[in-house]
Write a structure and sequence with these properties.
Shape: globular
Bound molecules: iron/sulfur cluster
Structural class: alpha/beta
């Protein structure tokens, strides 16, 4: 993990999940769409990272990439890193694939070029290895590693409960199937566990409800059931993809309260995706703002709302109903999110940006600290923005140079580009 990706964590223990330079591209006959283009962030233990942006910004593709659920013609680039840091999981994978392990620090001699397990501290060899700190890079790992992570370690709460639930099976059957696959529970034991799950998400009379079908549930209860399904395998991380978008505000508030309670009860880390800044203010500890496949600003939630620095974030915040003075017309951001169908050699927000200047059309802004003092405080507490206006205490010439340097391709980029060209 780099210092940059530590910026979102806010804790000293290190992240549970870290995403580094994630690039997910869809290749069609007509065009190449860079849906996720160099995204980095971390999700810390028991904290909530909010990911916010308009439709088409790449939020959901980011979540699906983490779980290996990107469908054809999409592909996660091999130089991306999605690292899961739970020591017990890392240990299991390290014992299964002993020849794919790299030892960091004092034991670098045992590195392997195609390793996807990194052990930072631990001991032992092969099937007796013990891991204290380490990570598994899911992008490079075989499919069975990602499958073993999905549900049991990292689970997803989908946006549309009606689609997520199977209409021809009872709610009980759907939960018990997961309990059988992942925990080997059956019969009375599975029924009891399924009822407990429904009760934990606030569904009354859970034993009777198990025998009902999804259409017999209200919208709010369906969403609670989707959360129960996600919790069936006791994951450590929940990826919540717009879980309240289809709900009215009263039910939305109840679901947000439920997630907060479950987070505390189960020590969950949450990646919460939404287009709603009001929801972000309620749920998030830290925020990553996405635009056209990129993270354009990230900071703690307090800092982002107090001092938004990227013009896009400022526009999003100004367009929250209730923040404008009474009688004022609510500001909006004109235009739409562009389809990121060409390499980012310029600022993708420029056509909509009220502060755009000439260089924005020819220089791609990289995520940099928003001021030099911020940079000196280290990336751990960094507030960063991908905008040529920053760091604002530098001259324009120095800023442009800085963004060029941050964005300079390294050798692995060149190798990847060469592979794509073949
Ligand atoms: S780089 Fe330029 S166009 Fe892009 S957000 Fe900053 S000022 Fe606006």
């Amino acid at each position: 993990m780099t210092d940059e990706s530590q910026a979102m964590s806010g804790v000293t223990d290190g992240p549970l999940l870290s995403v580094e330079n994630l690039r997910t591209t869809f290749y069609t006959d007509q065009e190449t769409i860079h849906a996720v283009d160099g995204v980095s962030f971390t999700v810390s233990p028991q904290q909530t990272l909010g990911v916010v942006g308009e439709s088409g910004s790449g939020k959901s593709v980011t979540a699906r990439s983490i779980l290996g659920l990107v469908d054809d013609p999409g592909r996660v680039h091999p130089d991306s890193e999605i690292r899961y840091h739970d020591p017990a999981f890392v240990q299991t994978v390290a014992r299964t694939y002993p020849d794919r392990v790299t030892w960091a620090g004092e034991k670098t001699a045992r590195s392997a070029s195609d390793a996807f397990v990194t052990i930072e501290s631990g001991s032992g060899e092969g099937s007796s290895v013990t891991v204290e700190r380490g990570s598994v890079n899911l992008v490079a790992a075989p499919d069975d590693v990602t499958r073993s992570l999905r549900g049991s370690e990292v689970a997803m709460v989908f946006q549309d409960a009606q689609t997520a639930l199977n209409p021809v099976y009872t709610v009980g059957n759907q939960i018990k199937e997961l309990l059988d696959i992942h925990q080997g529970l059956s019969g009375t034991e599975a029924t009891e566990a399924a009822a407990d799950l429904l009760e934990s998400v606030g569904i009354p009379d859970p034993k009777r409800r198990l025998s009902e079908y999804p259409h017999q549930f209200s919208g709010g209860m369906q969403q609670r059931t989707v959360i129960a399904l996600a919790l069936a395998c006791d994951p450590a991380v929940l990826l919540c993809d717009e879980p309240t978008t289809a709900l009215d505000v009263t039910i939305q508030a109840q679901i947000l309260e439920l997630l907060e309670r479950l987070q505390h009860e189960r020590n969950l880390s949450i990646l919460f995706i939404t287009h709603d800044m009001g929801v972000i203010a309620q749920v998030a500890d830290a925020v990553a703002v996405m635009y056209a496949g990129e993270v354009v600003e990230q900071a703690s939630v307090d800092r982002l709302f107090d001092q938004p620095r990227h013009p896009y974030t400022q526009g999003l915040l100004q367009s929250i109903p209730g923040l404008a003075s009474e009688g004022d017309r609510l500001p909006t951001i004109d235009g739409r999110v562009p389809t990121p169908n060409e390499p980012a050699t310029y600022c993708r927000y420029a056509p909509r940006c009220p502060e755009a200047f000439e260089e924005c059309k020819s220089t791609h802004p990289e995520r940099v600290p928003v001021d030099s003092a911020n940079e000196k405080s280290g990336w751990m507490r960094a507030h960063t923005a991908a905008c040529l206006l920053y760091p604002e205490d530098e001259s324009l010439e120095d800023r442009l140079q800085m963004h060029h340097n941050f964005g300079a391709p390294d050798e692995s980029d060149a190798a990847t580009t060469a592979r794509e060209d073949d």
